[in-house]
Design goal:
Oligomer: single chain
Helix content: 40-55%
Number of domains: 1
Protein name: Cytochrome C
Structural class: mainly alpha
GO molecular function: electron transfer activity; heme binding; iron ion binding
Radius of gyration: 19 Å
Pfam family, one: Cytochrome_CBB3
Strand content: under 5%
Shape: globular
Order of helices and strands: HHHHH
Keywords: Electron transport, Heme, Iron, Metal-binding, Signal, Transport
Length: about 110
């Protein structure tokens, strides 16, 4: 392979990589499915945990993004009943994905 085809090939691969890597970004539903949030939660119906619309209603008008971020990371209990929510690591959901999910939940 000569330089005239190698360098454009590298640039194309870099461009594809930079476009493909944020594919999950902006799709909170995919992130929630990947992290198994939807095992216990749904948008509009209480399951094991509260419905996302109930979370949004409880915290409407409040700046709780960091509080909810910490609760998802560390786990929590008592806010919506007796059943505790287990902690969720960065391996389950990245910080960026978690922030997008929280924004999505609070808009319900």
């Amino acid at each position: 392979m000569n330089k005239s085809t190698f360098i454009p090939g590298i640039l194309a691969a870099m461009l594809v990589g930079s476009v493909a890597s944020p594919a999950l970004a902006g799709d909170p539903q995919t992130a929630m499915n990947k992290a198994s949030c939807t095992t216990c939660h749904s948008v509009d119906k209480k399951m094991v945990g509260p419905a996302f619309k109930d979370v949004a209603a409880k915290y409407k008008g409040q700046d709780v993004n960091q509080q909810l971020f910490d609760k998802v990371r560390k786990g929590g209990k008592g806010s919506f009943g007796k059943i505790p929510m287990p902690p969720n690591s960065k391996a389950a959901i990245s910080d960026d994905e978690l922030k997008e999910v929280i924004t999505f939940i609070l808009k319900q």
